[in-house]
Amino acid sequence: MVKKLITTAAAKANLMEGVRAATACVLLLLVGCALNVPDFSWAAIGAFWTSLATAPNTARSRLASMLAFAALSTAGGALVTYTAALSPTAGALAILIFVTLAGLTRVWGERPYQVAILAATACVVMIDHPSAAAGDMAYLGLYLFGCLFATALSMVLWQIRPFAPDHHHTHWRQAAVQTVRAALAQLREHTSLSSDGMHFALRLGIATTAAYLTVHILALPCGYWATMAVLLILQPSAAGTLPRSVERAIGTVIGTLIAVAIGALALTPLQIALAVFPLIGLTMALRPVGYSVFVAFLTPSFVLVADYAMPAIEYNYALARLENNLLGSAIAIAATLVLWPLTERLRK
């Protein structure tokens, strides 16, 4: 069984993709070390998320997905950061609108939804950045730089493998027309499911907003882990949400233990930057293997990069992150069971 698992993981893993993503993140962290600018962690976060948002099949789709993510997450981050500085209610309203719109992209398929939901994830993290309360959005420039750096590394400086050829070598204008026609066809195809798509988008927006308000009312540390959990767990049906929440819980526990162990050894920004490299590499490489494995390496990767500016890999912080993940999972499950569950039962 173990041998079969290892063989399956090796077959699905893409180690060079992992190395490239890790290189982009760690180079930016090292620049932050050299310049003594801890906020360069935001550049590394931007590079990391941009790598996650990549569509792997053609050069055009890869570039489009990376640039779309960079634009959406930066613009959305500016919006929610600005509104959160006005009042918590305004911040909650911004999250509700942005996340609901992100949920609607599921109508166009998994790839657009992946870009949109990762952009929404970036926004719910940014809204709890300490600078948000002061209305200071300077870190967004570093974040956008990281997104563009990862894009340039992927598209220009380090192309790991040839992209799949476009069918019939169509001219780019013809390809654009075909893309628009395909999108319209998909939209017509999903018209009958528009009600379910709207319900899912509203459910996602309401649940994420509820998580945001809950952690702020209770003044929970690392509250953005709860809102992230809702975004990444909640699926259109309970049958998809329940196992996803279990997988995330298992992966988060393992990842938290890894983060605590590394945090006990990596005590300086330079040591953290070096420790991040294998973790991000494994996160990206093992993403196709399974969600629990992905989360197990994603958790310590994001913890170490996010805490690069203010290292806080202590037991209490690790426990707070785990508790917030469980809170987010509970909110996602409750939203799936309570908000428009009858429609899905009838559709089945």
Automatic annotation (TrEMBL):
Keywords per UniProt: Cell membrane, Membrane, Transmembrane, Transmembrane helix
Domain Integral membrane bound transporter per the UniProt entry, residue ranges: 211-334
Spans through the membrane: 67-100, 138-158, 210-234, 254-277, 289-306, 326-343
Membrane topology category: Multi-pass membrane protein
PROSITE patterns on file: PROKAR_LIPOPROTEIN (PS51257)
InterPro entries, A to Z: Memb_transporter_dom
Cell compartments where the protein resides: Cell membrane
Primary location recorded for the protein, binned into one broad class: membrane
Keyword Transmembrane in annotation: yes
Superkingdom of source: Bacteria
Family: Belongs to the YccS/YhfK family.
Name recorded for this polypeptide: Integral membrane bound transporter domain-containing protein
Organism: Duganella lactea
